Amino acid sequence: MYRSVSKMTMSVILLFSLTLLVSWVSGCSKKEDMESVTVEPPNPKITVDGKNVPFLLGSYQWKGAITDAPQPSDLAEHVKPFNASPSSLLKVEFDYKPNELKLSALATDGNQNYSEPIDGFEAMLPAEKGRFIYTLWGVWKEGHGVYVFVIDIK
């Protein structure tokens, strides 16, 4: 009796272990599978002269999830400004490229404002000195996202 219980116990433990292993492997199989469960739009890599520019994700709609954030000017108060030279080149990269990308800038003195599509994911920073609040708007088939960053032209 002792021997048959031992074999039965071992069989149950082995079966349970195999079930756990199969569940774990199937749940962690592919990067594409993991991306399908993300609830936020992809984050950009924003650079000026090869240096990363800090940003915040604002409002977005992504795969049915909707988040409403404060206005870009309010979000900008929580982003560390990035110092740049006049007319520097701003580059934006995404691992998952958007179908549409638009950039707008507002000088904190309220005098300058522009909005334009980014051609080839690059844009020229203003030649004028000052602080600019940038809003980057990307659109994908899964939804859209708004990103906010601040540039100080010195």
Describe the structure.
- The protein is an alpha+beta fold and 154 residues long.
- Helix content is 23%, strand content 40%.
- The protein contains three helices and eleven strands, in the order ααββββαβββββββ.
- The strands form two sheets. Strands 3, 4, 5, 7, 8, 10 and 11 form a seven-stranded mixed β-sheet that branches. A four-stranded antiparallel β-sheet has the order 2-1-6-9, with no helix packed on it.
- Strand 7 and strand 8 form a beta hairpin.
- The protein is globular and about 75 Å long.
- The protein starts with a helix and ends with a strand.
Structural topology:
Layout: H1 2-27, H2 31-35, E1 45-48, E2 51-52, E3 56-62, E4 65-67, H3 72-75, E5 82-84, E6 89-93, E7 100-107, E8 113-117, E9 122-124, E10 130-140, E11 143-153
Order of helices and strands: HHEEEEHEEEEEEE
**Biggest pleated sheet:** 7 strands, mixed
Range of strand content: 35-45%
From the N-terminal CA to the C-terminal CA, the straight-line distance is: 85 Å
Report the mean per-residue pLDDT as an integer: 82
| Basic shape | globular
User: What structural category do the secondary elements indicate?
Assistant: alpha+beta
Q: Give the total of beta strands.
A: 11
Number of helices: 3
Provide the helix percentage. 10-25%
**How big is the Rg?**
24 Å
Question: Uncertain runs with pLDDT below 50, 5 residues or more?
Answer: 12-35
